[in-house]
Amino acid sequence: KKKSNESRRLAQQLSLIEFKLNKLEIGEGGNILDKLYTVGGPMPFTHAHFATPHLPKMPIVNEPLAHFLSKTISMTSARTTAAEANGDAMEHSSASDMVNEYSGLAPLPLMLKAPTDPILSKIYNIIPSGVANNVMQTLHKLEDWDYNVFDLEEFTQGNGLFYTCYSILHRLDLPLHFKIEDKVLQNFLRAVQAGYHPNP
Questions:
Q1: pLDDT by residue (tens digit) across 65-107?
Q2: pLDDT tens across 110-125, in order?
């Protein structure tokens, strides 16, 4: 009991010292968020004085896979389905098909074979065998209720959050619309994923 009280008191003193140091670094009129913006990246965090501190690690993502996804998804998003182009009614086999018909997006490909596009084919051949197919088959259900993020987490070695966000943004052509460089987008999403705290 004495030890826990002493730990609590020391933790409070440490927090006060950190706060004062931050004020000195930022200046009297500055804001702590300004410092976070300047330093950038995910920050260490402790939920409570007795909890294990969360020390974020920037994930290492498979850049050829990310590049392949951005190209494949952007190419798909730029096209409308054949039924829509012809004004035909369409049978909906999934929620994705229905969303795609009304949003003007073609369904994401299942990637059952290597791409024929020479640029995509070159990138595809750099990616470890089967990874692109597994990821594309999982992302095919991106707009469905049964989208399996756990499979994606496994196929991407723990980077399911990164690839889900990355795919959604490219699906909506937002990087192109806002002229976001791919490297900047990847670094941002890596930092977002690194900043997520573990769920014990």
A1: 998 888 888 777 655 434 444 454 444 444 445 445 545 566 6
A2: 655 667 778 788 888 8
As to burial, measured by CB atoms within 10 angstroms (0-12 exposed, 13-18 middle, 19+ buried), residue 133 is middle
Q: Does the predicted TM-score (pTM) go above 0.70? A: no
Query: Which residues, 6+ apart, have CB-to-CB distance to 60 below 8 Å?
Result: none
**Looking at residue 29, what DSSP letter applies?**
T
* Position 184, amino acid: V
**Helix 160-171 crosses helix 63-78 at what angle (to 10 degrees)?**
30
Best CA proximity match to 71, nearest among 131, 129, 153, 136: 136
DSSP alpha helix (H) spans, the chain = 2-26, 32-39, 63-78, 82-86, 95-103, 118-126, 131-139, 149-155, 160-171, 174-177, 182-195
Distance between CA atoms of residues 164 and 137, nearest Å: 13
